[in-house]
Write a structure and sequence with these properties.
Number of domains: 1
Radius of gyration: 32 Å
Mean pLDDT: 84
Number of strands: 3
Order of helices and strands: HEHEEH
Shape: elongated
Length: 143
């Protein structure tokens, strides 16, 4: 593979990484938790068709990691509207960070390929001593 092709690919990946890094910087406030919304049918509904026409109330729960334990907590309805954007921001941030890590890995692999192409063997620069016919080295002559 040509070095110029590798360099242009690295440049494209750097641009994409820069764009994602800027998005991560601008994300705003986040809540490092997963939001689970559950809808329960009304208790007085007797038929499935009737249950489909009425809106079901939403109950929110967050799942988060607290030290060594994963916890689940109920979120009251009045706080639910303020928590939804915060958890969505965290989800977007995590997705972008995953993509940035992937791009970093690709860039490092391409740099390794460039290093392989440009690396020269050390033996080119080493001078070999001449050996006599009987296998012994010739003594060096100091000047």
């Amino acid at each position: 593979m040509k070095i110029e092709t590798l360099k242009s690919t690295i440049t494209k990946l750097n641009r994409k990484r820069y764009f994602l890094e800027k998005n991560c910087q601008r994300i705003g406030k986040m809540l490092p938790a997963s939001l689970i919304l559950r809808a329960f049918p009304h208790r007085n509904d007797t038929s499935y068709a009737l249950a489909q026409t009425k809106p079901h109330p939403r109950y929110g729960y967050i799942t988060y990691f607290d030290g060594t334990i994963t916890k689940h907590r109920y979120i009251p309805k009045k706080e639910l509207d303020s928590i939804i954007p915060l958890t969505n921001n965290y989800r977007k941030f995590s997705k972008w960070m995953k993509e940035i890590r992937s791009l970093n890995k690709q860039i490092v692999e391409l740099l390794d390929k460039i290093a392989e192409v440009q690396t020269q063997p050390v033996s080119i620069f080493l001078k070999q001593r001449r050996k006599e016919k009987n296998g012994k080295r010739k003594p060096r002559i100091k000047k």
